[in-house]
Amino acid sequence: MTDGSSIRRKLMSIILVTSTAVLLLTCASFFAYEFFTFRTTTATNLSTMGAVLASNATGSLIFNIPEDATEILSALQAEPHIRAASLYDANGALFATYPKDSPADRFPSAPEIDGYHFRDGYLISFQPVVQGGKRLGTLYLKSDMDGIYARFRLYAAIAAAVILATSLLAYGLSRRLQWQISLPILALTQTAKAVADRGDYSVRAQRIGTGEFETLTDAFNHMLERIHEGDTALRDSEERFRSAMSYSAIGMALITPEGSLLDVNQALCDMIGYTRDEILSTRFESLVHSDDVAANVNEFQRLLNEQTNVYRVEQRHLHKSGQVIWVDLSMSIVREQTGKPLYCIAQIQDITNRKRDEELLLNLNSELEERVQERTRKLKEANSELEAFSYSVSHDLRAPLRAIDGFSRILLEENADKLDEDGRRVLDVIRHNTQNMGRLIDDLLAFSRLSRKQMEPCLVNMSELARDVFEQLKPGFIDQKIHFKLSDLPATYGDPALIRQVFVNLISNAAKYSRPKPETVIELESHSKNGDYVYSVRDNGVGFDMAYSKKLFGVFQRLHSLEQFEGTGVGLAIVQRIVHRHGGLVWADARIDEGATFYFSLPKEKKFDGDIATGE
Amino acid sequence: MALSKTLANRRRSWLRKMLTVVCSGIIVAFLLGERTRSAPASEYQVKAAFLFNFTKFVEWPPTAFGDSNTPLVIGVLGQDPFGSYLNETVQGESVNSRQLQVERYRSVAEIKRCHVLFISRSESDRLNQIVATLKYRGILTVTDADAVDTGVIIRFVNEGGRIRFRIDSSAAKAAKLSISSKLLRLG
């Protein structure tokens, strides 16, 4: 309240000064009015009195009896304000005086012009004494102004009392009324002071008064609220940042744009073995390994020049013990709204262990790679040996088979007459089996060659390829009536020779297993599925039992007897291997006597490698 | 009225003072040897002026004048002491717009219309008779003879060498004359 007294005093003094000034002005004008009125009244009174005296004194003058005139004038004793009076005869000679015995030099030696005037605080009047239109002489009257002064003293006393009373009243009233103005302002002031002194933005000004004060208080409170919110947000943000920095497992440092350290956290201290004070007394560069300083400084400069907002480097620091530590340093910058850099935040993670692990892993990897290469080399050797072996076996197996077949034929042709019917039948069986075995060996050779063949992928026109294959195979099924229905198949990537083999196997199978039907229908279609093209080959042949579908694609696996349908059981295995090498899948759908459909998918994009797929 | 009463009272004491002063003055005058008598003419000059001035303070009854043009007559009964002074004094003057006229009478019988009558000392012996004759005729009688209690309205007196007068207000009343208080106070 002590601080508030200023505005209260000011308001009070304004009110008091104003009211006093108004009163003084009123009194002054009243005084002036009174003064002039009183002068006029006094002059009028004097003039009236003079007229009476002059009228009375005519006889004295006419009959030249100064004693009588003196007597007449002595009646002025009743008027204490009349200080002097005298009568002059027609010649202007002094005739009678009042007071009676005053010396003559106290009166004007001769009458002046008629009328009255104020002189030296006295009212002086000269009036003619006339009888019957004839001037007999002049009456002189001198009145003091004590009356007006006495009255003024009285007025002054009254005015002073009134001013005093009014001031007291004004003081009392203003003391009460000024609260309407000063109280809201004082409340605001107190609130503002509380906010300023304690920084406590949760304080609110009390709503006192109406109109502008209400608006002012509301605006003030609203402002406080905004500041409070901002302050709280800032505090929270600061607290979060401080907390994040203090308890971070990662080393953190605040760095000025000039490179001095503002703050570091405990994690960083622990990391490089210095105390906080030791770090803060140095510059950031001095903590960096001398070989990495240049790169860091360069990046830091780029950060300051707004070329980047953050940079990340892996660099070495020196522990207090002299040991080298690898760190992952992430440096970001905080700018003012104007873009001026405020400070930089460094986040430093000790990656010494990771680096060591990486190195170990790298060593391990290269060792592993060496071993893999060694193994692969050995495996390749073994594989090629095996292939060479199987090829040579297959090849070497064919020679005796050809000999058996050849000699059996010779025997059958040249000695047919020496053999009976049974003997010829046995020889036919021998030849048939020998030929079968030859085909088996051929297929086996083809299958094993497939693994070794290098893939040469390109965009393959599937429709054209399929039609070409059908046309090539058609002569082999001359005794069959075949309807070949080819949809428009999308082109895709693949090795043309291998894909051709797929179509050869599937179309020839379809024709083969449809032979018992009076008319054979082979349909080729395609659709998209999961980014692959799915091609299908459907027949209306004998079909098969789905219970055995898993055996379909195994080598030498057959669902039908050789007597029913010739074949080696290698075709579908070859199909599966080729499709797998292209990154696709093979499956089938069939019912006995209702035909079969074989599906194979190929990726729309070329995603297979050209290398040999192993492990099949 | 209060003022005039006090003035009257004062005048009596003043009168006694003045009497002694006048007596001593006369003695001094005699001792000094005829010095003050140097202006006998001026005495009647003054008295002539007085006669004229009296008319200004006196109101006559309406019957005293025939009409508004009737002059105001100042008469002198007996031996005229004024010489030419009286005529000179009233020459060209008027009172209440009435002309002034001076008449001279040897006897009362000669008096017809008169407003102010100066009775000369020569008539001192017949004063009572004259007054008795004129008492109710509305004439302001004036004399400088020794006429105390004779019924003459105004008597000139000599006080210390100065001419004064005394007024017998009851006589004035009897003559139906209204004398101004200003004049009464002086007499």
Characterization of the model:
The complex is a heterodimer of chains A (616) and B (187). By secondary structure, chain A is of the alpha+beta class. Chain A contains 13 helices and 17 strands. A 5-stranded antiparallel β-sheet of chain A has the order 2-1-5-4-3. Chain A has a 5-stranded antiparallel β-sheet with strand order 7-6-10-9-8, with helices on both faces. Chain A has a 5-stranded mixed β-sheet with strand order 12-14-15-17-16. The longest helix of chain A has 63 residues. Chain A is rod-shaped. The C terminus of chain A is likely disordered. Chain B has 2 domains: 37 residues; 144 residues, Rossmann fold, CATH 3.40.50. In chain B, the strands form 2 sheets. Chain B has a 7-stranded mixed β-sheet with strand order 3-4-2-5-6-7-8. In chain B, strand 5, helix 4 and strand 6 form a beta-alpha-beta unit. Chain B is of the alpha/beta class and 187 residues long. Chain B is globular, with a radius of gyration of 17 Å. Classes of the chains: A alpha+beta (616), B alpha/beta (187). At the A-B interface, helix 1 and helix 2 of A face helix 1, strand 8 and helix 6 of B.
From the helix content, strand content and strand pairing of chain B, which structural class follows? Answer: alpha/beta
Strand content of chain A: 15-25%
Number of helices of chain A: 13
N-C termini distance of chain A: 99 Å
Largest interface: A-B, 16 and 18 residues
Helicity level of chain A, as a percent range?
40-55%
Shape of chain B: globular
Quaternary state reads heterodimer
Biggest sheet, spatial arrangement of strands of chain A:
2-1-5-4-3
Pattern of helices and strands of chain A: HHEEEEEHHHEEHHHEEEHHEHEEHEEHEE
Provide the CATH architecture of the largest domain in chain B. 3-Layer(aba) Sandwich
Please tag this protein with its features.
heterodimer; A: 616 residues; alpha+beta; five-stranded antiparallel beta sheet; 13 helices; 17 strands; 19% strand; B: alpha/beta; Rossmann fold; two-stranded antiparallel ribbon; 6 helices; 9 strands; 39% helix
